[in-house]
Write a structure and sequence with these properties.
263 residues; alpha/beta; Rossmann fold; 8-stranded mixed sheet; 12 strands
């Protein structure tokens, strides 16, 4: 079953899609999916939509949504910051609390690229409301490079920030850059102590593989982390085999965590 949903965050309406499996009517595990920079709730090559369908077959539901200022949600892209992204994630989790057929002890968070950066930072803040975290190519590079006067390939003067920069034809506002200058992505992600999956391609030019490895080395313990390398893949998992590795690894991890009994 699939139906549109709406949620208020920061006084704006977020719009998304709720997927629930046909073979379960109660105590349904559920995943919240957070898209990347200038993305939407289906994601590149329909990765999120495909994952939702795959998870349904495992008895797992999902909510995939557009962040404010993105896709069908209200707001302007220029007003987006990492703080607003995190606020949206928390408010979507609050929306999920209103779903009586969802097992509230079995809610999972997934983020891709900028969505992964934001999900990783949000997760410690709501760790008691999550059972696991999945990160696809988490984009710590976005905050790291701002300190060098660079964002997604766009150069600027970090000592005299512009009103906005042009990112993929969209205006990214000064407030985003100001906030990013204050954020240590790895330090801010510490404190989440539940199981984590990271999937990263070795040929990712947008978020180099080394940034994923740093989460492995600096943020998560060996006991909690499953790290999946997709050899040869770019940032968008652009060929069918890479896509299959990504979706199958994610489905297997989330499905196993959904079935895991707490000790």
């Amino acid at each position: 079953m699939k139906k549109p949903i709406e949620c208020i965050s920061g006084g704006l309406t977020l719009r998304g899609m709720l997927h629930l499996p046909d073979n379960r009517t109660e105590n349904i595990p559920l995943v919240i999916m957070c898209h990347g920079l200038a993305g939407v709730k289906t994601e590149a090559r329909f990765l999120f939509a495909s994952l939702s369908k795959q998870l349904e077959q495992e008895g797992v539901g999902s909510v995939r949504f557009d962040f404010r200022g993105n896709g069908e949600s209200d707001g302007q892209f220029i007003d987006m910051t990492i703080g607003t992204l995190i606020e949206d994630i928390i408010n979507i989790r609050n929306f999920v609390k209103t779903l009586s057929n969802v097992d509230q002890q079995n809610v999972h968070l997934l983020g891709y690229s900028q969505g992964g950066l934001s999900a990783a930072i949000a997760a410690p803040q709501i760790k008691n409301q999550l059972k696991s975290l999945t990160l696809w190519a988490p984009a710590a590079v976005l905050t790291e490079e701002v300190h060098q006067g660079m964002f997604a390939g766009v150069a600027f003067n970090k000592d005299n920030l512009p009103e906005y920069i042009d990112v993929k034809g969209l205006k990214l506002g000064r407030s985003y850059l100001e906030e990013a200058l204050k954020i240590d992505a790895y330090e801010y992600s510490k404190g989440f102590d539940k199981p984590v999956l990271i999937v990263h391609g070795t040929k990712d030019a947008a978020v180099p593989y080394e940034y994923g490895i740093r989460y492995k080395d600096e943020v998560y313990t060996a006991e909690q982390l499953t790290f999946v390398t997709v050899e040869g893949s770019s940032h968008t998992f652009e060929i069918p085999e890479y896509r299959k590795q990504l979706l199958d690894a994610t489905t297997a991890f989330i499905s196993s965590q959904a079935k895991r009994q707490e000790i």
